[in-house]
Amino acid sequence: MKTGLVLEGGAMRGMFTAGVLDVLMEHGIVLDGAIGVSAGAVFGCNYKSHQIGRVIRYNTQYCNDKRYASFGNLLRTGNLYSEQFCYHTVPEKLDVFDAKAFAENPMDFFVVCTDVRTGDPIYHKCRTGDAEDIQWMQASASMPLAAKIVKIGHYQLLDGGIADSIPVRFFESIGYKRNLIVLTQPKGFVKKKNKMLPVIRARYLRYPAFVEAVADRHERYNETLDHIAMLEQTGKAFVIRPPIPLEIGSMERDPVQLRRVYETGRAVAEIQVDKIAAFVNESKAAAEE
C-alpha cells in the first residue's frame, strides 16, 4: 500500500504548498510518490530533488523581473511567464534545479496536463528532471489565455487543473491508497463557474472539448472535494490546507506577499508535523504487514 502526496495548483497560492513541502523535507518526511498540478508541479518537483528553500528564494528574487513575468512577455511571445527565463535561465543558470538528485530519488513524481484536443487529463511520470520533464511541468502550469499551447510529441497541452485539479482519484487508481493532500483553498471553499468562459470560448474555438472542460471544471472540482472529505473521515487521507483564504494575486509581484503565503504554509505544516509523520508511518507499517 503506497502513500502519495497530492499537490493542488493555484498560481501563487502555490507558495503555501512550497512552505508545507520545505517543512516536510526538514523533518525527513518521505512519501512513495507525488503528483503535482500547475503550481503544484513546478514547485513540487523541488520535493523530489530535495531543494529546501529554492521556491521561495527564486520567486522573491525574480518576481519583479520583467524577464520572469510581464504583460510585455504576453504581448511579445504569448506567454505571461517567460518560457526562456522561467524554464531555462532560472533552472539552468540562476538557481539551478538539481536534476541529478531528482533522478536519483526513487520517489515517483507525476504531473497533470490537459489535452486541448480532447479536454482529458494526461498524467506524465517525470523520471529524470531533464529538459523534456521540465517542459511537461511547464505545460501543467500553462494557464489558458496567459500561455501558449505547449506541444510535446503528439500532444497539445495546457494547465492540468482544467481537467483534474486535485488528482487524488488517479493516484488511488495506481495504488496510492493513502494520500497526504495539500490544498490551496480553505475548508468550505466552493468553486464557481469560470467568469472568463466567454473569452476562453472565443480564444479556443478550435478546441470545443477543452472549452467544455473549462465550463464544467467547477462541478468536477467540488465533487472531488466531497470525495476528499470522505477520505479524510475514513483515515485514507490527511489534508493540509490554509486556515483562511490566502488572498494573493495570480501574478503577485510583492515579495512580502509571497513570503507571507509561504510562511503560512510553513506554520500550518509545523503545527501538524507530528500528525503528518504519524499518518505516513502508519501507512508504511500497514504496507509492511
Would you mind describing this structure in some detail?
It is built from 13 helices and eight strands. It has about 290 residues and is an alpha/beta fold. It has a single domain, classed as Cytosolic phospholipase A2 catalytic domain (3-Layer(aba) Sandwich). Strands 1, 2, 3, 4, 5, 6, 7 and 8 form an eight-stranded mixed beta sheet that branches. Strand 3 and strand 4 form a beta hairpin. Helix 1 runs parallel beside helix 2, helix 1 crosses helix 13 and helix 3 packs antiparallel against helix 13. The chain is globular, with a radius of gyration of 18 Å. The N and C termini lie close together (about 10 Å). The model has no long low-confidence stretch (mean pLDDT about 95). This is Patatin family protein. Pfam families: DUF6363 (PF19890), Patatin (PF01734). Keywords: Hydrolase, Lipid degradation, Lipid metabolism. GO terms for molecular function: hydrolase activity.
